[in-house]
Amino acid sequence: MEQLGWVDYLFLYCMVCIWIMLLINIVLTAGGYRYYLKTLRMRVDEPLDEYPTVSVLVPAHNEEKVIGQTVEALMELDYPKDKLEIIVINDNSSDDTGAILDQLRRSRPDVNLRILTTDKETGGKGKSGALNNGYAVSTGEVLAVYDADNTPERSALRILIHTLWRDQRLGAVIGKFRTRNGSKNWLTRFINIETLGFQWMVQAGRWELFGLCTIPGTNFVVRRSIIEEMGGWDTKAIAEDTEISFRIYRLGYRIRYMPLSVTWEQEPETVPVWMKQRSRWVKGNIYVLLKNIPLLFSPEAKQIRFDLIYFCSVYFLFLSSALLSDAIFVLGILGLIEYNIVGNTLLLWLMAYLVFVLEMALALSMEKGQSRPRNIALVAVMYFTYCQLWLVVALQGAYQFIRDSILRREARWYKTERF
């Protein structure tokens, strides 16, 4: 038997990290499937004795392409009109967002639509800042948040409120988001599969097994009293959804995933736009993890310990191991390095590939019409394409975080191009 060198041990380390994450995701997928079976028996239509007042906050910065459709969908929400106010924060926009909103307000005097317009002095500091501005003028007992490209189904808000108001242990409830332009091209098809897999594996699985899930940034409700206690959104956080989730858990509340509440959102249709958006997510989540890592062994972190370990493993161990293993594999093929576990390498790669496809296929089976053969074939392809792009995004996001931390750059809008 040939003696193993440092490259062999490094590769084995990478394989161990990758397989640990694969096994964790297998468990989460099983938990997600169990929760899916429970949702088939859920009844969320029974009305409340009294409905709370709700303020819907919509941060909007140069959203002329999508804001009209979003506000029209919000106006049609199946929720008592006398208990609902819609606040669109037109945050330092330079396009026709404001004109479109004014026209909508005039056309529907029966709806309590409020438009909060800010400029570069009073706004323009990113989504967290816009949400704080909207929250400051809101009156609802519950705050709901929708992104400017979202078209929620009529029942979406009502289902979230029914779930939240019947359980005082809940600080927030999140719904499901679906891809509105999922059939546009290969990229949006991959994104559609990714988002469904994430929600049924990571969100539903963590809720079922650990009573945990993470606010996705849209289609969620949170008690006003909690936002008051926390002092609003962290304006330094780009990933404000993950950041606020951790603080809600640290206060002792739970966040529930309710997939029967559905909103439809527009996804990036070109690779450069997708990479810009995803690298921002990586950068924002690194900030949140580093902010909360000191709490890992603190009693205060009891509720978030699993999430801290899980997301640290994803961003720092899994992604780095995937990068290293890919590099070793390519350099070995090119003959630039030598390692002695070639046969085992092929077997480990094949098994990891099969597990990935099976996990995603099971996740897609929980969504009506998504487990068709074409989507399973797309899963098989995305492992070698879309998933590998995520490695580039991870490097780009980490670089941006380090650069902006050194330069002490202020948070600002990271605009996702609309189509």
Automatic annotation (TrEMBL):
The chain crosses the membrane at residues 6-33, 308-334, 346-364, 376-399. Gene3D superfamilies: Spore Coat Polysaccharide Biosynthesis Protein SpsA, Chain A. Keywords: Glycosyltransferase, Membrane, Transferase, Transmembrane, Transmembrane helix. One of its GO terms (molecular function) is glycosyltransferase activity. InterPro entries: Nucleotide-diphossugar_trans (IPR029044). It holds the Pfam family Glyco_tranf_2_3. PANTHER family: POLY-BETA-1,6-N-ACETYL-D-GLUCOSAMINE SYNTHASE. Belongs to the glycosyltransferase 2 family. This is Glycosyltransferase.
